[in-house]
Amino acid sequence: MTKIIRISAALLLRSDGRTLLVRKRDTVAFMQPGGKIEPGETPEEALMRELSEEIGVTATLAELEFLGQFQATAANEPDHVVIADVFLLHVQDDDIHATAEIEEVCWISPSEPGEIIMAPLTEHHILPFYRQRQSQAAG
Predict the structure, then answer these.
(1) Predicted TM-score (pTM) above 0.70
(2) CA atoms of 139 and 102, how far apart (whole Å)
(3) 52 vs 55: CA distance, rounded Å
(4) Are 34 and 47 contacting, i.e. CB atoms less than 8 angstroms apart?
(5) Per residue in 38-62, pLDDT tens?
(6) Quick one: 108 exposed, middle or buried, by C-beta within 10 A (0-12, 13-18, 19+)?
(7) CATH class of 3-138
(8) Within a 10 A sphere around the Cβ of 16, how many other Cβ atoms?
(9) What is residue 2's predicted lDDT score, i.e. its pLDDT?
(10) Domain ranges of the chain
(11) How many whole angstroms separate alpha carbon 44 and alpha carbon 39?
(12) Which of 7, 16, 32, 70 has its CA 20 to 30 Å from the CA of residue 43?
């Protein structure tokens, strides 16, 4: 039986339009920063806690823009599905660094991410959603 993991994740954007992806220690797939929602936490509270723990980013509730809820096969846990509340957050990249379980961070173009391995949620849901939103805004 498939198990569900509830997470909160951020589409972090800097001024040049690139977005931050992170890779956890002992894994291969890059994904949005964020993590599991603990009992009693709102998705926003979970995301603010995770961003602080994982990449040293302090975000306020007012800075988070809800993009939607997305679902995909979990990248690192077999027989699990992640259901993610995803928020947009504009950041400066000068004080972002990998901490806690994060081994690597990288900035990518949402429209041309390159040859990196991405989590299904990132590759098939969050980035395509953002690209579609950007093309609608431009049109």
Answers:
(1) yes
(2) 37
(3) 6
(4) yes
(5) 999 999 999 999 999 999 999 999 9
(6) middle
(7) alpha beta
(8) 8
(9) 83
(10) 3-138
(11) 13
(12) 16
The tokens describing 139, both together, are 């049109």
Which residues does 79 contact at the CB level (< 8 Å), separation at least 6?
1, 2, 3
CA separation (Å) from 13 to 88, 101, 108? 7, 21, 10
Q: Which amino acid would we find at residue 107?
A: W
Q: Which residue in 92, 114, 96 sits closest to 105, CA to CA?
A: 96
Residues 79-132 pLDDT 10s: 999 999 999 999 987 779 899 899 999 999 999 999 999 999 999 999 999 999
Tokens of 87: 């928020």
The answer to whether residues 86 and 50 touch, using CB atoms and an 8 Å cutoff, is no
Point out which residues pair with 86 in neighbouring strands: 9, 68
